[in-house]
Amino acid sequence: MKPQSQFLHVVTRDEAERRFREHLNLAPLGSEIVPLELALNRVLGADIVAPIDVPGFDRSNVDGFAVQAADTWGAMEEQPRELVLTGETLAPGIVPQGAVARGQAMAIATGGMLPRGADAVVMVEHTDAEGGSVQVRRAATAGENVSYAGTDIARGETVLRAGQPLSSREIGVLAALGLAQVSVHRKPRVAIFSTGNEIVAPGAPLPVGAVYDSNAAIISAAVEELGGEPLRLGVIPDDEPALAAALAQGMSEADAVVFSGGTSKGEGDLSYRVVAALGDPGIVAHGVALKPGKPVCLAVTGGKPVVILPGFPTSAVFTFHEFLAPVIRAFGGRPPEQQALVPASLPMRVNSERGRTEYLLVNLVPSDKGLAAYPMGKGSGSVTTFSHADGFITIGQHTEILDQGAPVQVQLLSRGLDPADLILIGSHCVGLDWLSGELMRQGIRIKVMSVGSTGGLMAAKRGECDVAGIHLMDPLTGVYNHHLLTPELLLVPGYGRMQGIVYRPGDARFEGKDPGAAIAAVRADPDCTMVNRNAGSGTRILIDRLLGAEKPPGYGVQTKSHNAVAVSIAQHRADWGLTIDTVARQYGLGFIPVQEERYDFVVPKARIDRPPVQAFMTLLQSDRARNSLRGMGFRIPE
């Protein structure tokens, strides 16, 4: 086997960006003319100079009578002024045939053209018309209820400027100017494909060991959000000629090429080889001191950017937005994105690796002392991290530790922070998933963070959540949750869950045994591997109580959910673990009951009167919720 090649030379993030942009012309790619109906969300390619006045004539803003204001002076309810009607009525689109002389009035509708001689319009509500005259009961001032020609837009005025994105408001302005088509910047075309024999397009069957191609979907959508046009080239296998052909197609048909996978320069990674063959100047950075995103490869050829993103989704998305997104915006004539920063503090200590700039995705929750930034902590392979996060903090390459309570600046992932109505922090449970879904269907915005029972309890004590789901057993008494209460916390009864040992059906080490015999079989077989739960979880406390001081094979593999335990066993990566019976049934696993636990909810008393909290408690106590949870296998008294 060939030795794995290493990165060409790991450089800092700023140096990588400098090298990349040095060979790019960050200017719009050109303009094109499109019909007005297709201009929404496009970017203006040229200034818009008004060819006409808007309005193009002096126009009445109300239904009433066009008059000379001086004729109405002194008019009151008790002493109206009488004016003679001209007999002409001005509807919209009608050009006046006569004029308004002293002592005269002319009937006019909203939008009608003001006749010569008139300088005001009296609202019909302030008049009484009878026969050939009209009684005016309120005085008018010159210009009242009139829009004069050119007061909105004057001919020759620059009303919109090149580089301005076109929303529905700007489309209305263009239509008011009579423009049926408009010059817009051309959309940059971005060729996108993924590489790897293990990558499968969504919709196809998924073999064992393969993964669906989420990166291409994410990047394609991001390109469209940036105003670009994605050219989707699909999934390319690990075959050098096929990769070279895909790259050549992208270079010939697009303004930029981006693909994921094959950036680490291992023996089986071919992407860098085909990119390395590019010239003018070719690869400018391969390996950047970032976390996530170190393997990113940046190249330029013929003025076109070529970027190989890391295969893991979070790394791919971060590096795309860090290096390529600004280029796509510039190619499309859009201004640089404005960074929205909000101050927050860390509720826990965070360790970082010296020598690399780290981007840490966080969730923001309000507390009594401001916003708390909870690290997501799912790793660069997670496909959900970005969709659940509010923003990220940047940890400098010379920082190793951020202490609990440290102030940080959070860069938001969207234009504004949309706070949730109800914040749930604590242990994950499929029953809580059901409750959350029901509340969301009621219009309540919910944020759920699964940080374990201990993390949820601490969040409740700090006032950082509305509800914390916990199942923590007192190791001395075996009673759940009550021993953890403080005067500031209220315990809301939830439901019972049966915890037990799970295994693959037919495994003789567990089949038909009670918990004691099953643990004895584990101790007797050094090849029997477990999958553990994270420290601080209620399930971990139960595991440690079963095992005592022993740490069998797999003890160090700590997962953060019941489902992760079940998946590990179903895929033969582990032989046994502890989870709840509801999840065991979902995965078709054998189950040995160990202990019923209580999954309850802790609510800070300071938040108990908040309407979303009351809605949660009302739902939890409803017959519909109780019946549904009971149907899922949870223990709820009749």
List the helices and strands and how they pair.
Layout lengths: L12 H10 L8 E5 L12 E2 L9 E2 L3 E4 L13 E10 L13 E5 L11 E4 L3 E4 L2 E4 L9 E2 L10 E3 L7 H9 L4 E5 L3 E7 L3 E2 L10 E2 L2 H11 L3 E8 L3 H14 L2 E5 L10 H6 L4 E6 L3 E2 L5 E5 L2 E6 L3 H19 L9 E5 L4 E2 L5 E11 L2 E6 L9 H4 L2 E5 L5 E2 L4 E6 L9 E5 L3 H12 L4 E5 L2 H9 L6 E3 L18 E15 L11 H10 L7 E2 L4 H10 L10 E2 L2 H9 L5 E5 H6 L3 E15 L6 H11 L1 H9 L7
Helix pairs in contact: 3-6, 8-14
Write a structural description.
With 638 residues, this protein is α+β, with helices and mostly antiparallel strands. It folds into four domains: 13-26 and 187-331, MoaB/Mog-like domain (Molybdenum Cofactor Biosythetic Enzyme, Chain A); 31-52 and 155-185, Molybdopterin biosynthesis moea protein, domain 2 (Alpha-Beta Complex), CATH 3.90.105.10; 59-147, Beta Complex (Molybdopterin biosynthesis moeA protein, domain 3), CATH 2.170.190; 419-638, D-Maltodextrin-Binding Protein, domain 2. It is 23% helix and 29% strand. It contains 15 helices and 36 strands. The strands form eleven sheets. It has a six-stranded mixed β-sheet with strand order 7-4-6-5-9-8, with no helix packed on it. A six-stranded mixed β-sheet has the order 16-13-17-21-20-18, sandwiched between helices. Strands 19, 22, 24, 25, 26 and 28 form a six-stranded mixed β-sheet that branches. Strand 8 (127-130) and strand 9 form a beta hairpin. Helix 3 (215-225) runs parallel beside helix 6 (313-331) and helix 8 packs across helix 14. The longest helix has 19 residues, at 313-331. It starts with 12 loop residues before the first helix and ends in a 7-residue tail after the last helix. 39% of the residues are buried.
